[in-house]
Amino acid sequence: MSIRADRSSIQKLVVIAAGILGTAALALSLTVWWLRSDAIADATRDTGNLATVLAEQTNLAIQSIDLVLNEIQERLENLGARTQDNYGHLQQDKNTYHSLTDSLSRLSQAALIALIDKNGRVVTTTQKWPTPSIDLTNRDYFQHFKNNDDKGIYIGKPVADHTTGLETIFFGKRINDSNNAFLGMIIVGVRVTYFQRIYNSITSLPDQTFLLLRNDGTAILRYPDPKDRGGEIMPEGSPWHRLVSQGGGAYRSPGYFDGTARLVAVRPLSGYPLVINVGVSQATALASWRNHAITIGIGTLLVIICSVFLLRALANHIKRLVSSEAALADEQGKVDAALSTMSQGLVMFDSSARLVVCNQRYLKMYGLSPDIVRSGCTLRELLSHRAKIGSVVSDDPEQYITELLGAIGQGKIFNKITTLPDGRIISVANHPMADDGWVATHEDITEEKRAEERIVHAAHHDALTGLPNRILFAEQLKQALKRVRRGERLAVLYIDLDRLKRVNDTLGHPIGDKLLKGVADRLRGCIRDIDTAARLSGDEFAIIQSSIDRPSDAAALAIRIGAAVREPIDLNGHQVVVDTSIGISIAPDDGTELDELLKTADIALYEAKNAGRGTYCFYETDMRGPRIIAVAGNRGHLWGEQHRIETRTKRNHSRVNSEYLTIGGNYSRSP
After folding, report:
1. Domain for residue 451, yes or no?
2. Measured between alpha carbons, how far is residue 50 from residues 252, 273, 427 in Å?
3. How many domains does the chain have?
4. Are residues 622 and 511 in the same domain?
5. Which of 19, 92, 449, 530 could serve as a FRET partner for 609 with CA atoms 20 to 30 Å apart?
6. Does this model's pTM top 0.85?
């Protein structure tokens, strides 16, 4: 009986041992697989973060280059370089060289700027004066613009610079003549070493590669790589093309360039035909996983061997706990390193609004004392310290605290943008956590906001005169017409500058531009703060005269404008005299809708020009169409009194009163 019991016990032990062995083997397989998946996910996330940072930095660099290229294009147009002869004369103009040098000084990443003619010859370069004879017909960027009417920016593959021999990537834009034919191009050269320094500064893993490509799959620069990969093409069957069309992502590459399998993050640049790839070899990504797999295998084997000894199993369990704590400490170290290298300020508060952690960037951003801003410091104490050193977050700290805690209590993100006394603009984002605490990030967005303001201003103002353009004029008129519907009256004056073409033809467009600036200044001097003056096109201006009592107010303004503009303007020693033709439309008399009011003003302007130019005309309609009711001569003055006339409408034969002015003693009236 005892033998059977022993056998039964042994069998049970064998079964238990087999069960433990099978369970351990299954657990080992699953653990190894999960760890491998985690290692690949971590490597993919790290490369993705690096690719995002690198793409943003590259995008900003190219954006600044693009702005300078556009600025040079506009400058060349203003200089009249719209023909091959005029464009070629820039080679002898040292002012062009100084202008390009000035533009180069604003591009820290650029090494040179040059103008190329349609034959591939260098017209002007910032590298040397006088301009050396350099032929660039064999460059890919020249061939591209010569054969394609491409208005965008083109990035060539790295080539040796003719002057220094250094490897350089060229960014170019095409220049067309007045007939839209190829006239030449502008190029900005950036040394390859500039990109290499950026890549070296953010490399976080061994065997990590960076690849700059065009969005058609053509490689421009791969680093590090002993071989020049410029011009090589990403295979058509690669998932890379699909990820680019989707706006980015990650994939496993079999090693198209060096035969090494890699985990690759793909990030297309916003607004430019470039893509950033960041890759790490699969072997490097899984190196840590292999070590963990070996460790787990040995530990599991020990557990199996010692499964009959419960104490031994307990000891192995404790060992795994210690290993987990070490891994946790290692992760904490990585978090601390990430906090110290963040470009944003970061603070974390617990549910009692006490500080848990903050990074050095936060302290430096506001000039805070680490002796005061430390773990355990309350939110109110921190804000009080900031108020004492003149770095307030809000005019009313108590209200700010109430709003912040209210949002966090509801599990909502609380965002705030504040302007510091020194002019910096800080964006603060407070994110709630599960334990009722929150994490806040502080980011300096001063340059971003200023860039947005410059872009908005450029989109709504005329680049030459600084006056509102057609878009802003229409927006202002829409707002003014809302006040008209509430009983206010306004006038729209369409102003055409007479004889501008003669000035441009005889004295040149630069003089014509100065004339337009002078006219714009005089228009500003004729209007009130509540009025709006705008430039609609080449020689066409417009004014919104708000809150008028009678049409004579608009007539008086037209007379002031005519007198001001007729005064001679000294333009580089030339006494230039021009005149204006003005069409006037009154709201609500002539219309209450934007298109209707602009159309009537335009008709009045047309009649003023037909009347001999140098005049102003009012618009009015009867049942048969437009009727011009007031015209003033070149030197006319407002002297007549206001009169009332009566017209009959075909609809109900009722009398309608209509006010108009008699100017210079002459006016016309529909029968």
Report:
1. no
2. 17, 19, 23
3. 3
4. yes
5. 530
6. no
